[in-house]
Write a structure and sequence with these properties.
Largest sheet: 12 strands, antiparallel, barrel
Number of domains: 1
Helix content: under 10%
Structural class: mainly beta
Distance between the termini: 30 Å
CATH architecture: Beta Barrel
Oligomer: single chain
Number of strands: 15
Length: about 325
């Protein structure tokens, strides 16, 4: 899948592009790995701002499958067997020509799902590992993280619940056309504050505030638009039911490429990397850094309405086995 997508992008880059200035990316896709759900994580973003007094409203839906079943002696144990659906409402408002404010409200449903049989057949057909999932009952929910036999939370399958949410501010530093490909044509800084609105006992929140600082940059190497965003996130230790849990701050780096196929359609491929909030648990899926590949498109249905689709593949196991993403945006696009 990765090689096919990269080959397609290579041949697209050989074709002429007359739609400079119609960039729409990047794909706004989060890592939906449940143990990271309660923490602030790097989210792909553009340095572009919303014009003053204008707004952009979006609704996204993600569906992902996750399986983890590991022990690390008597220290940590992790059992995650679920499908997760995330609906997110987002609002951006141009306070000035140089400052955009944002609000993100995610709603999460963790459930047993329906794809276990399909995924097992898919992995078997293409010779892919199933990581022991065939030993679990099909389409049965489980989500348990324990440290020294003590529970972090008590998660249950069921309703759509509000998770920890975020407010943000993005300030433009530079916005000008450049001939030098190695210099950014747009540059912004952003700050995000995660608010503890989710239920920490159910695994939907940490009970604390997190802070993210990011540098957002956009380059143009015709016919591509390149996004490059380093970030630093300061995490609060989570409140727990029983276990004593501490976490580490996160370093992130996002890189994405957008091919503007037409004024209405952009094709995108991107990589989102960040360090793990956990250390020395002895469970590889918790200790390993996240690297997720994301492929998709953004299509402008009208001048103020767009559709975004993405398929995400985990390149490390600290991300869902797969994630399908759909997003509708309305406003100043």
């Amino acid at each position: 899948m990765l090689r096919i997508c990269m080959t397609a992008i290579f041949f697209l880059c050989l074709t002429p592009n007359t739609w400079a200035g119609s960039e729409k990316g990047p794909l706004s896709v989060r890592n939906q790995f449940p143990p990271h759900l309660m923490f602030l994580k790097p989210v792909p973003d553009s340095p572009r701002l919303i014009p003053r007094t204008q707004f952009n409203f979006s609704l996204s839906a993600d569906h992902a499958s996750i399986f983890v079943n590991e022990l690390s002696g008597e220290k940590w144990s992790a059992l995650i067997d679920m499908e997760i659906t995330v609906l997110e409402l987002s609002l951006e408002y141009g306070l000035t020509d140089y400052l955009t404010l944002g609000l993100d409200l995610p709603f999460v449903s963790m459930n047993s799902g329906f794809l276990d049989g399909f995924l097992e057949d898919f992995h078997s057909t293409f010779g892919l590992p199933n990581y022991g999932k065939e030993e679990r009952p099909k389409d049965e929910f489980a989500y348990r993280l324990q440290k020294q036999g003590k529970n972090w939370f008590r998660a249950e399958s069921g309703d759509l619940c509000l998770a920890d949410s975020a407010v943000s501010a993005k300030l433009s530093l530079m916005d000008e056309i450049r001939k030098e490909w190695f210099l950014p044509e747009k540059l912004s800084v952003s700050y995000t504050l995660k608010m503890p609105l989710g239920d920490e006992e159910g695994g939907f929140g940490s009970g604390g505030f997190d802070h993210e600082f990011s540098l957002l940059s956009q380059f143009r190497i015709s016919p591509l638009v390149i996004y490059l965003n380093p970030s630093l996130i300061f995490l609060s230790d989570p409140e727990t039911v029983e276990a004593d849990i501490s976490v580490s701050n996160i370093l992130g780096l996002f890189m994405g490429g957008e091919y503007i196929f037409s004024e209405s359609l952009s094709l995108l491929a991107q990589l989102n990397y960040y360090t793990s909030p956990f250390e020395n648990t002895g469970i590889s899926q918790l200790d390993t850094e996240t690297l997720q590949a994301e492929f998709g498109f953004i299509y402008k249905l009208t001048s103020s309405l767009s559709l975004e689709f993405a398929f995400c593949e985990d390149l490390t196991r600290s991300a869902p086995d797969f994630n399908v993403h759909l997003r509708m945006s309305y406003g100043n696009l």
